[in-house]
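Risk register update: the risk of archive-format incompatibility is retired. Evidence:
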Amino acid sequence: MRPIKRILVAVKDPTAKSLPAVAKATQLATGLGAELVLFHDIATPLYADMLYARNVDLKSLQRDQLALRRGQLEKLQLAFVAMDCP
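Archived output:
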């Protein structure tokens, strides 16, 4: 059997106070010497009238949501690194 090199974890809410799946995956990745990859599917509902009310184009909104979610995942990563979890 090939060694596990990478563990992919889906994160539903990066702002949640408790993320047991990420904690367990971190333990496994540490024990196996594997890379831990966090994944979040951006599923924010988008309503056309919201775009007009905010006077924002779709590309800008997508860029802002991506930056927000990426920042949340990076913050989550830093929290686990601070706990000595690679």
